[in-house]
């Protein structure tokens, strides 16, 4: 949407935004400092935002750092992503009760989904939400609970002005400028003229919320500063993917030597799948209570690194080697995801690099596979 | 008689069915027939599968091996907790059923052509409704071949039906390990292709069984000149949801609960040639 209706708000405007969203009955979730990290949690006021905090990121490395300025959104992805709320780690799918005559009654949970407002959705994470939308709601069977939460969610995006050393959204075409899908979008500007946020609406509800905030029309200086800061961010990506068709690269390198190299470092712990904002895999668990007549079906996050992930009763696991499990994760993420869901599964947020205990870097692996393919073609 | 319309259902929530028949096929395998307690699921096609839930234990994917109105038949081999519970069900017991899921064999595309149906072990179960379809309309197809392999004579499925199949089709049976009473063929199922009656250039093959048997059979069929596009195989991977959301059943670009289990050999061959894909 054109930013003809763009406005400028200050820190008090951000407070008012949280109040306005809460006033509409929404649970406002945003970044806040807790346990030595910037986590996503329920916010009751703007003072809980991580003003003055930044992060230092590297492969297998995450540290909070105090900043010289008081920026609220000058940090990149933390350990969590919005899937924690939209596609929760554990969810009950249904309950079943067996009557005395043996009849079974199945009931789906019909409690209304929570009405979330997400404050501070990065462009990469906004794309990640769109990717999960396609996985969970665009196929022949939609996940109705996910769809309910998603339809009610109000998204306040924040353009990226300070990418981390592990970021590569430019390579994946997902940032640092915001793409479609937001209700409101902010760009933080902090210069001699003060600390302020350029804000524009992407939906009717966004417009209506914006109208409630103390604001002034966007001035040319703020617009220019916002544009420049985002453009500068694009030039400061810490990582890049090889500039080739990654889908073809994955298809061409299924038997590469590099998989053995990375397997020597991979613990198959599954951290990368837990922190990835698009990884969606789940397992089901069936439980009964002590009466034996009440049963429940739960769904929980699962990782393709788990040996049991491909276990077939009577036949064992299809992917029993760690090599095959790392290869599955990477080739799915940037290769076969296209075949299955029409886009890449990687948005370039860099979480998998940061939270890998041995510092395996998805971009480094892709470069190595590309080099190995090129060397093979040259021979 | 009241006609109950299929319910508009959420594919993640089971629908109550009751067991109306069960019969032991072998020491570890039984065939159960289930009917809806109230509203039925949408119609199943041969090759598709259901997720069948044993109360309090769990659910497993089971191909339909018989479709008669709203009555569904499944053959289940006991290999784990859930399949063990399902194999031991008695008439009257309630189960939960979800589906239909996955792709179908598409027998109609074989119209006017010779059929080569090749089954290994319990792989005969999903092929059974296909054979029934061919038997019901023999004028639509050329020569119908049903080639069946089993570990031992005691593992052979649907033995009471085989005389009828033999009368109306070229049905050949082989076992890996004969017992003292066995007078038939011994060896792998692919050896039966020598005695099947089909024109490779215009045949359609339907293959299900252990993956090693599928590879060997498809390779042999291609070697004889059958177009890989006209070889359909039914593949197996772990399944938790059936709805394309859990990720377990991935085989490269395929989600087998959605894009399979029935795929052409053209699609399957390159995927099955990569170890541990």
TrEMBL record, chain A:
InterPro entries: 4Fe4S_Fe-S-bd, 4Fe4S_Fe_S_CS. Keywords: Iron, Iron-sulfur, Metal-binding. It comes from the Bacteria. Residues 255-287, 337-365 form the 4Fe-4S ferredoxin-type domain. Transmembrane segments: none annotated. This is 4Fe-4S dicluster domain-containing protein. It comes from Streptantibioticus ferralitis.
């Amino acid at each position: 949407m054109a930013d003809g209706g763009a406005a400028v708000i200050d820190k008090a405007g951000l407070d008012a935004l949280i109040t306005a969203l809460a006033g509409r009955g929404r649970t406002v979730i945003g970044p806040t400092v807790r346990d030595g990290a910037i986590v996503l949690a329920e916010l009751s006021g703007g003072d809980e935002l991580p003003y003055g905090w930044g992060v230092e990121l590297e492969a297998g490395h995450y540290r909070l750092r105090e900043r010289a300025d008081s920026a609220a959104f000058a940090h990149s992805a933390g350990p969590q992503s919005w899937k924690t709320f939209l596609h929760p780690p554990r969810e009950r799918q249904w309950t079943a009760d067996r009557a005395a005559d043996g009849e079974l009654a199945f009931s789906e949970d019909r409690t209304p989904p929570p009405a979330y407002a997400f404050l501070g959705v990065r462009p990469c994470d906004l794309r990640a939400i769109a990717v999960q939308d396609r996985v969970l709601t665009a196929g022949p069977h939609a996940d109705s609970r996910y769809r309910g939460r998603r339809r009610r969610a109000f998204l306040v995006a924040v353009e990226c002005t300070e990418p981390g050393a592990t970021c590569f959204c430019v390579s994946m075409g997902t940032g640092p400028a915001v793409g479609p899908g937001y209700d409101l979008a902010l760009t933080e500007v902090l210069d001699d003229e003060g600390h302020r946020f350029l804000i524009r609406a992407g939906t009717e509800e966004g417009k209506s919320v914006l109208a409630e905030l103390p604001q002034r029309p966007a001035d040319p200086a703020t617009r220019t500063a916002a544009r420049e800061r985002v453009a500068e961010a694009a030039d400061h990506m810490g990582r890049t993917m090889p500039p080739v068709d990654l889908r073809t690269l994955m298809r061409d390198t299924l038997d590469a030597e590099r998989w053995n190299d990375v397997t020597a470092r991979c613990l198959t712990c599954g951290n990368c799948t837990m922190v990835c904002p698009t990884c969606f895999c789940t397992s089901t668990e069936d439980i009964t209570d002590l009466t034996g007549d009440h049963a429940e079906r739960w769904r929980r996050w699962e990782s393709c690194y788990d040996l049991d992930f491909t276990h077939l009763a009577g036949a064992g696991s299809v992917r029993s080697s760690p090599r095959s499990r790392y290869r599955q994760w990477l080739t799915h993420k940037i290769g076969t995801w296209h075949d299955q869901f029409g886009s890449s599964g990687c948005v370039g947020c860099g979480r998998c690099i940061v939270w890998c205990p041995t510092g395996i870097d998805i971009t480094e692996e892709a470069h190595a596979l590309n080099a190995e393919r090129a060397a093979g073609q040259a021979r | 008689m009241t006609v109950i319309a299929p319910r508009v259902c959420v594919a993640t929530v089971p629908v109550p069915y009751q067991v109306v028949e069960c019969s032991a096929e072998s020491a570890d395998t039984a065939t159960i027939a289930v009917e809806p307690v109230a509203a039925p699921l949408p119609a199943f096609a041969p090759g598709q599968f259901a997720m069948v839930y044993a109360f309090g234990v769990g659910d497993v994917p089971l191909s339909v091996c018989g479709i008669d109105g709203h009555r569904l038949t499944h053959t289940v081999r006991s290999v784990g907790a859930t399949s063990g519970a399902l194999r031991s069900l008695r008439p009257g017991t309630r189960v939960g059923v979800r589906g239909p899921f996955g792709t179908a064999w598409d027998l109609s595309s074989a119209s006017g052509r010779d059929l080569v149906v090749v089954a290994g072990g319990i792989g005969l179960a999903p092929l059974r409704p296909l054979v029934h379809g061919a038997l019901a309309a023999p004028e639509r197809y050329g020569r119908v071949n049903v080639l069946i392999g089993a570990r031992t004579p005691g593992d052979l499925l649907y033995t009471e039906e085989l005389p009828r199949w033999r009368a109306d089709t070229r049905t050949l049976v082989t076992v890996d390990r004969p017992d003292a009473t066995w007078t038939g063929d011994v060896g792998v199922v692919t050896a039966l292709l020598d005695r099947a009656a089909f024109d490779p250039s215009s045949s359609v093959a339907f293959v299900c069984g252990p993956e090693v048997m599928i590879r060997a059979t498809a390779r042999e069929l291609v070697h004889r000149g059958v177009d890989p596009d006209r070889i359909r195989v039914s593949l197996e991977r772990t399944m938790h949801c059936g709805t394309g959301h859990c990720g377990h059943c991935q085989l490269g670009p395929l989600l087998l609960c959605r894009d399979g289990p029935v795929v052409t050999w053209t699609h399957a061959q390159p995927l099955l040639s990569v170890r541990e894909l």
